[in-house]
Amino acid sequence: MPELSRSQLLVYAVIAAAVIVIGVRWIRSGDSSAGGGAELSFAADSAHEAEGARDAVVHVAGAVERPGVYRLPAGSRVTDAVRRAGGFAHGATRDGINLAARLNDGQQVVVPGPGPAQATASDGTTGPVSLGGATVEQLDQIDGIGPVTAQKIVEFRDQHGGLSSIEQLDEVDGIGPATMQTLRSALQP
Questions:
Q1: Is the pTM above the cut of 0.90?
Q2: Taking 80 as the threshold, does the pLDDT of residue 120 lie above it?
Q3: Could you count the other beta carbons within 10 Å of the beta carbon of residue 59?
């Protein structure tokens, strides 16, 4: 085997060091999304945008094991965000959130815990309504919303590819400040 010159050894050492640094950063980026999840790498955002990927960065809060901010692949669902946040915490109201809803970039996913805000429907039942998957009939049951406004809400949600917050409903024709207050206590994103 031929002997290597000092310059060749130096080049190989620099390459090895760069590979180690990149490997450590890659492993740490995996740990931060699996751990606290609150750290974001804006350099990574630029790299993903340059590649044309449209990942969704979502805030998972409420009754999950590791609330935080997570990056998920385009097309992910709420169930993927809950899984990334460590799954449901003890006491989570699993049926209080639409796990099949698609995620949007910048969305907050709130998993209700024990004692969430309760909406009282006209039929006497109580419970939060998931904005992501509520039907016209379910929305119509909320005090202050009739069938016409319920239909407008569903159409607005469908036109905008979902809703990332209840506050977006303020843009729906027929929803005023009093109705918004009712919706904040009766709906979940």
A1: no
A2: no
A3: 18
